[in-house]
């Protein structure tokens, strides 16, 4: 069974830093591109960034609001992707989801999402 | 960035009846390969989003066939042939043609 589990959320002061983790299981993690998506309280979904699999260069891409402040990395030996967040702002308060695109045995797409971890930026 | 606009914002539905939602993009989502890079997701109350439709018309793995996607270019529709009580939640469209991927604001579906 494919699972993604985020951790590391919590309350942080404006300007502070936090590192989120997303552990994957049930699939070949090293073959997976990974995305982070966030959802502010009562709001819609917002893409945060992605990291490609190492075989595709392991490159990263970020949404404009977080570029230069957030950094995504991966450790395939631990089947884990990280979201390092710094210079946090009130507007970064959200549930952060990690998600991956996979394909089933019939080559039909199936996306997996973790349950999310809540980050609250508060003074 | 490509702007995704969904309508209506809210849709009361009756179990057993059909329902449809609209999504419009600010730019064409039709790739030269012939596919429209639009996904539909459902976020049920208290849950993470789940993929329903990808590339405009393809049902994701395990999705009931009462869900169907249509449209091309800038106008897309998600249809439910017969709504069930478990279909309540917020439906989002998302474009994957250009970075950054962008989501519509969502259509909230509630049972009448």
Helix content of chain B: under 10%
Helical fraction of chain A equals under 10%
What is the number of beta strands of chain B?
11
Q: How are helices and strands ordered from N to C of chain A?
A: EEEEEEEEEEE
Can you describe this structure?
The complex is a heterodimer of chains A (123) and B (112). Chain A has no helices and 11 strands. Chain A is an all-beta fold and 123 residues long. Chain B is an all-beta fold and 112 residues long. Chain B is 0% helix and 48% strand. Chain B is built from no helices and 11 strands. The model of chain B has no long low-confidence stretch (mean pLDDT 97). At the A-B interface, strand 5 and strand 10 of A face strand 5, strand 6, strand 9 and strand 10 of B.
Question: How would you briefly describe this protein structure?
Answer:
The complex is a heterodimer of chains A (123) and B (112). With 123 residues, chain A is an all-beta fold.
Write out key terms for the chains shown.
heterodimer; A: 123 residues; mainly beta; 4-stranded antiparallel sheet; 0% helix; B: 112 residues; 7-stranded mixed sheet; globular
How are the SSEs placed, and which strands pair?
The complex is a heterodimer of chains A (123) and B (112).
Chain A: E1 3-7, E2 10-12, E3 18-25, E4 34-39, E5 45-51, E6 60-62, E7 70-75, E8 80-85, E9 94-103, E10 109-113, E11 117-121
Parallel strand pairs in A: 2-11
Antiparallel strand pairs in A: 1-3, 3-8, 4-5, 4-9, 5-6, 7-8, 9-10, 9-11
Chain B: E1 4-7, E2 10-13, E3 19-25, E4 38-43, E5 50-54, E6 58-59, E7 67-72, E8 75-80, E9 89-95, E10 102-103, E11 107-111
Parallel strand pairs in B: 2-11
Antiparallel strand pairs in B: 1-3, 3-8, 4-5, 4-9, 5-6, 7-8, 9-10, 9-11
